[in-house]
Design brief:
The complex is a heterodimer of chains A (112) and B (113). Helices cover 0% and strands 52% of the residues of chain A. Chain A has 112 residues and is mainly beta. In chain B, a hairpin with a 3-residue loop joins strand 4 (31-38) and strand 5 (42-50). Classes of the chains: A mainly beta (112), B mainly beta (113). The interface between A and B is medium-sized, with 21 and 27 residues.
Chain lengths: 112, 113
């Protein structure tokens, strides 16, 4: 069975600084997808970034980038130039059958 | 394109009642998945419908059921509500969840008293 683990329940970062959120996963599949979703206080889940496991190149989306280490089954999210609007709960998720398996989430606080 | 919409946004029910939640996917999306979010269990997959067929199912009791219509709109039904069913129910749509990204609606917050 697939599992996703986020070991940091809470993180904080100073505005304009960089923060990295950790995620490890376990799967026996060779073809799968990894995601980071953001859930602000409104509870709306918003896609941050997506990575296909067969791609070696790390995905990037503006200030958001991932460090995908397939052998180590690690998928961390780096947020550069943190902004107040980045404050939210971040969920790491994996999928290979269309079913998203989520980690427990990391609450990110951004300090002005 | 309009995003995923869910109705109602908030709902209060009593134990033993049943409830139906609705989800309208992004136009052109044929896959609709449902997730339950609670503080204790986190985000858990309920089921997925693709082209009116249930394609995937999570580990929830039979009280939780769903269906999908020909226009891809989906409904989720919970019968004989229990206090533990209080949760945020999230719907997500995609072109095909097997390979494509799932986009979430705003959720329906259900409170069972």
């Amino acid at each position: 069975a697939q599992t996703v683990t986020q070991s940091q329940p809470e993180m904080s970062v100073q505005e304009a600084e960089t923060v990295t959120l950790s995620c490890t996963y376990d799967t026996s599949e060779s073809d799968y997808y990894l995601f980071w979703y953001k859930q602000p206080p409104s509870r709306q889940m918003i896609l941050v970034i997506r990575q296909e496991a067969y791609k070696q190149q790390n995905a990037t989306e503006n200030r958001f980038s991932v460090n995908f280490q397939k052998a180590a089954k690690s998928f961390s999210l780096k947020i550069s130039d943190s902004q107040l609007g980045d404050a939210a709960m971040y969920f790491c998720a994996s999928s290979n059958t269309g079913k998203l398996i989520f980690g427990q989430g990391t609450t990110l606080q951004v300090k002005p | 394109k309009a995003g995923v919409t869910q109705t109602p946004r908030y709902l209060i029910k009593t134990r033993g009642q049943q409830v139906t939640l609705s989800c309208s996917p992004i136009s052109g999306h044929r896959s609709v998945s449902w997730y339950q979010q609670t503080p204790g269990q986190g985000l858990q997959f309920l089921f997925e419908y693709f082209s009116e067929t249930q394609r995937n199912k999570g580990n929830f009791p039979g009280r939780f059921s769903g269906r999908q219509f020909s226009n891809s709109r989906s409904e989720m039904n919970v019968s004989t509500l229990e206090l533990g069913d209080s949760a945020l129910y999230l719907c997500a749509s995609s072109l095909d969840s097997l390979k494509e990204t799932q986009y979430f609606g705003p959720g329906t917050r259900l409170l069972v008293l």
